[in-house]
Queue: 2 jobs
Job 1
Amino acid sequence: MCKKIIIYLFAVLTVLMFLIAASELYSYAALKNIFESPKEFLTILKISVLAITLISCIIIYYIWMHIYSIMNNNFKDVTGIQNKVSLEAKISEIAQRNNTMNVGLMMYDLNDFKQINDTYGHAAGDKLLQDFVDCLSKILVKDSFLARFGGDEFLIVQENATPELMKNMSLKLCRIIDEYNKTAQFKISYAEGYEVSYHNHYFFIEDLLDEVDKKMYRDKAYKKKNITEDYSREKPYECIDNIITEKSFASEIFKCIQETDENKSLALIISDISNFHYFNNAFGYSVGNNILKSFCGEILNAPSMLFSRHLHSDVFAALLDVTNFTEEELLYHIRLYNKYIVNRISKLNHVCHFKINSGIFMINDRFLAPEIMISNANTARRLAKMNSTHVCCYNKQLEESEVKEAKILLTFPEALEADKFQIFLQPKVNTSDGTISGAEALVRWIDDGRPVWNPDDFIPLLERTGYITELDYLVYEKCFRFLSQNETMKNNFITISLNVSPAHLLTPQEFIDKVLNLAQKYCIDLNRIIFEITENAFIQQKEPLDKVINVFHRHGIRISMDDFGSGYSSLQLLDDIKFDEVKIDKKFFRNGINDNSKIILHEMIEMLKKLGKNIVCEGIEKEEVVDFLKKEGCDELQGFLFYKPMSESEFASMFSELYDEAAG
Ligand code: C2E
Ligand code: CA
Ligand code: CA
């Protein structure tokens, strides 16, 4: 604007000068009668016009250059880009426009610049500034305006901007700086905030400035690495009051991943605190909150952190730069870091030790939907709770088991509806003479005569998801119907053992009522029924179990402690619970029987006999085991050596063959 006025002014002045000079010359010539004819006067005039124009142009050029250099010095910074004055002029010029559509701002601030100045001197600081300016200049495009507006603060005003353009510029800078840092003595670390005013996302220039400023400071907090200060002296952990939705977290991850140098390896870690609600219950909410704040602060300060967020309750997520780490090393380091966090938080809040669970997802495909990344890291976190290190990395195997589990869960309801579950019966024999004493009912998922899934695949999953109770009732009903319909079974007393999922103990009365109703419906002699309940349920759900056992005992139903010796059974348990039978777990007999297991089994059987329990051993596959158990006085045996699980019809025909023959 200013430039144009000056040029017009000079043009007008030149024309005026020329007109004045021409009229003066003409009057002088007329007075002195110098020219012989008007034609001669015109020729002289033309030559004069040319000469004056030439001289004027030269004068204008020099004056203009002089003014320009004065103006430039006023608007240029020492780094060679626009300075604060010029930036303010630019901003106020934009502010006066009718609208700010498609104006973008990118704000930058160097991290640790003061530290470099203080530690290595101003020459080093100046060089760093200049180098950063050079890097910034490389991302400029048409209509970019780069200015320095503070010591280490810069702003790019971008006209005709779009979000894509801004993102690309930001990405480009990231790559340039990464490249620079590979060889630089002082590495550049910067904070960035950018925003663009466009359709449906309109900002006035002041709001745009505010927004980029906020973004830049947020970015500064996340990018600042290797913070050595104690987190308790830092600003309060805004993140714990700053829970974000999974959707916005997903988009943040995506943005951060796309903005990070492609050569870097990234991992998403989602962590939580085991049984966090205990802290709230035991120490109150304020302690609980302090623990969360500390947890948040520690995660924020973790090495190689790109950014972290509070997802919900005690769950935090972080994106880490894991370049040069193998999966194993990463697992190890996260385990160590979690231990370190636990120590610090325990000391700071005077609480006892606790566990942090971390699920890791290595980001190999940067374009994978971030929602899937979050879900995979969460799956790994869930599994981390179950392993002793409390850290788990999502991998192919997990992926496959996830897919399998999804298939099982999705097809279970229709399989139930279509009667695809059958009971198989595995006979138990008397140790003394090998005669059948009873049978355990084992469920099978069968389609077109072939098993679809193994019980070990679907039972634990159905337990976790709560569907198992429905399946158990189906098994009980099928068994009761089989007992009531088969004449040989009716006439010969053998017991039927039924597995009970621990899930039933959550609603003990419902369980009792349903079982008794079913038994009544099929007129079952309840003395023939044994319910097998796993050892772990005895430990974890003692009270409801006591209730169930008391009622069942009154009706003649017996209780067996299943998988005895597979978990952490305590001797106290044997005294506390009124069970009738113990089923020693098959793992004792998996590879035959060695001297150590002989000692353990001997003592165990001795003790159980003294307590008056019926002793059953399952998973018997070898004669030598039978010999040993016979000697020890075990009551019943179950295993492939005697019988494999068989269908109802196979069992019925085998059973009638044995008993009808004997009777005949
Ligand atoms: P469990 O209660 O310990 O059942 C015994 C398991 O050992 C059965 O596996 C049986 O087939 C297997 N087995 C029997 N003899 C031998 C042997 O000599 N060697 C070996 N290696 N294995 C033997 P299955 O049928 O695959 O069942 C696995 C588990 O699934 C059961 O373990 C039980 O916990 C559960 N389950 C099966 N049916 C039901 C059911 O109807 N309801 C509930 N809640 N759980 C069930
Ligand atoms: Ca069992
Ligand atoms: Ca068992």
Note: Residues 38-75 form the longest helix (38 residues).
Job 2
Amino acid sequence: MANVIVVGAQFGDEGKAKVTDLLAKNADVVVRYQGGCNAGHTVVVDGETYKFHLIPSGALYQKTCIMGPGMVIDPERFLSEVEALGNLISVDKLRVSTTAHVTMPYHLMIDAAEEDSRGDQKIGTTKRGIGPTYADKCARSGIRVEDLLDEKVLRSKLEWMIPRKNVILERLYNLPPLKVEEVFTQYYEYGKRMAKYVSDTAAIIFNSVGQKKNILFEGAQGTLLDLDHGSYPYVTSSSPTAGGACIGAGIGPTIIDRVIGVSKAYMTRVGEGPFPTEQEGQVGDMLRQIGKAWAEVGVTTGRPRRCGWFDAVLGRYSVRINGLDCLAITKLDVLDEFDEIKVCNAYRDKITGETFKELPSIGASFKNMEPIYETFKGWKTSTSECRSYKDLPVEARKYLDFLADELDVSIAIVSVGPQRDQTIVIEDPIHGPKRVLTRST
Ligand code: IMP
């Protein structure tokens, strides 16, 4: 093993948890570095399905699991997740950063009210208070985990904050005001229950590096939901890209050995925003419905996922933005029944007619892009029992080879089902050849 970042290379929900779970076996420490309970990670072990929102999905291997300073934590959800997973994971190895920010009740109320008021500007958030929590962090008025442990500090911060939030709740959204004392009592109590998990997690990571331990940084959401590099404003409020791991965990980039991207063999998106390869008809329905265990429904919100063909233009962008060394392709088996499979390999600008193989900009013009497809013959046979690259039907291999060539990155892992063993390792994802950057945009 080595120090490895796993990131989503699409719009989130790429199947990162399965890849992290696979790699966590040989890791000593698993770190989540951004986001909060907007994430939903599903891992299937021996037919049992485990769903995680906050706790790193490496937890099932009883590893030291860290929730880093870049995360936002809803204490109520954290405590119920710990309770629900208590017997299955080693919670004494769970550590929460003192400086992670806390999602407070006003964040949840404002997230929901703001979304409802946006009309056609709606983002489709998970309503888990993520944006408002990060907004307060940037405004330097957030509440951090360490504040929950200090009666005086918590009370004083709430005495200042809640009257201000009440102006927004009451005047802007016609919602009932919050009472300082009630919020204080509830959140101070959460703090007491969380105290045993709270640590200087950046120091734990630093010491683990010194002890030559293997650290796995587990990204949530995906590259195209990144606040800076995603399809703004239809993004989350954190940095799911590889660079976010350094800031969100509190480590320097020099300790990172490898960055692994995870993409589905097709593409999905939950929430609003541009999705050039989205398929609304029969193809979209088939992608959504195939495979019971893979049903395309958001783990966090239960919303049906928007589905479409693989977008190699966005794939190239993800390789670039994250500096990916290799790729894990998940859910190849979902394509097993298709007569033909398409990949968007270039865009045409609907206004100017220009074509692009590299994303010209993830700015406003992104919504004007229409896909230009390459069509592949489907393999029309089950891949779910394949355990090596050569077991795969020739058409599936052609499809994967095309993606690797076009994205200029090797495919190290292919997943053909939700179970741990339904995984093909083509090349060692950790010790395989380091990717050499040769192309320019
Ligand atoms: P928020 O993170 O709840 O503010 O939501 C912002 C956007 O990111 C919405 O389009 C959500 O659907 C999307 N999003 C947030 N978390 C996830 C995730 O874990 N998977 C997929 N989409 C997500």
Note: The chain has twelve helices and 20 strands.
